[in-house]
């Protein structure tokens, strides 16, 4: 009948019945659509997997500290990084340590009663190149004598000693001051009952193996 869909007929109750050929065409269209959807999902899953794999490798390469190469199990790059040390801050000067001298002095030549002498250790670089010297208290010693009498040493009762590395330029002098409270000491810091009497005393200072000349001062 004109105006009706090809391959379709009506049932006895007046409803339109779709022919088998139309069913087959519809199933074919639906099947193609399903294949396209599945193919899209598979392609998206592969792309996502590749992206995740690439992101993990990138993360492994960026977790290393600045200046180092990240490694996963060691190798040549790791060995190179471990063998690359920062430049030393200690100058390689070729210092002539025989030109480094120690001297002793006092702030006054005469100390009145009640005044505590200020003893001075000086270290001077008389060479033409910088020298790095340990000028810490671990190396210093102030010694006061009177004739053959060893009156005082700053080492006898020293509680703590520390190192202090310092670069001394050519012609430069470093000084350390020590206030002597006019008391006697003995090795091991054993108590001493007597105190120094008025008179002349001699000061000698040491810095490691370097020993100064002697200088004298008077206690009133």
What does this protein look like?
By secondary structure, this protein is an alpha+beta fold. Helices cover 23% and strands 30% of the residues. The strands form four sheets. Strands 4, 7, 8, 11, 12 and 13 form a six-stranded mixed sheet that branches. A three-stranded antiparallel sheet has the order 3-5-10, with no helix packed on it. Strands 1-2 form a two-stranded antiparallel sheet. Strand 1 and strand 2 form a beta hairpin. The longest helix has 43 residues. The N and C termini lie far apart (146 Å).
Topology:
Layout: E1 8-10, E2 16-18, H1 20-62, H2 76-83, E3 100-106, E4 110-111, E5 118-125, E6 131-134, E7 140-146, E8 149-153, E9 165-168, E10 173-179, E11 199-207, E12 210-211, E13 215-219
Give the strand tally: 13
Question: Helix content range of the residues, please?
Answer: 10-25%
Instruction: Name the helix and strand elements from N-terminus to C-terminus, one letter apiece.
Output: EEHHEEEEEEEEEEE
Average pLDDT metric = 74
Strand content: 25-35%
Shape: globular
Structural class: alpha+beta
């Amino acid at each position: 009948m004109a105006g009706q869909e090809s391959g379709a007929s009506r049932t006895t109750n007046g409803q339109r019945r779709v022919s088998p050929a139309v069913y087959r065409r519809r199933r074919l269209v639906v099947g193609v659509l399903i294949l396209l959807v599945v193919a899209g999902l598979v392609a998206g899953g592969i792309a996502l997997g590749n992206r995740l794999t690439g992101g993990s490798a990138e993360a492994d390469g960026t977790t290393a500290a600045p200046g180092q190469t990240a490694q996963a199990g060691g190798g040549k790059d790791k060995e190179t990084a471990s063998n690359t040390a920062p430049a030393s801050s200690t100058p390689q000067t070729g210092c002539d340590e025989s030109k480094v001298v120690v001297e002793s002095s006092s702030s006054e030549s005469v100390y009145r009663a009640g005044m505590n002498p200020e003893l001075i250790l000086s270290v001077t670089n008389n060479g033409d190149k910088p020298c790095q010297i340990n000028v810490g208290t671990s190396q210093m010693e102030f010694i006061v004598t009177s004739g053959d009498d060893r009156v005082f040493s700053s080492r006898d009762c020293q509680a703590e000693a520390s190192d202090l590395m310092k670069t001394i330029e050519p012609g430069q002098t470093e000084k350390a001051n020590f206030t002597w409270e006019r008391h006697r000491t003995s090795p091991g810091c054993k108590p001493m009952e007597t105190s120094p009497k008025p008179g002349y005393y001699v000061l000698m200072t040491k810095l490691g193996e370097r020993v100064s000349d002697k200088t004298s001062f008077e206690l009133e």
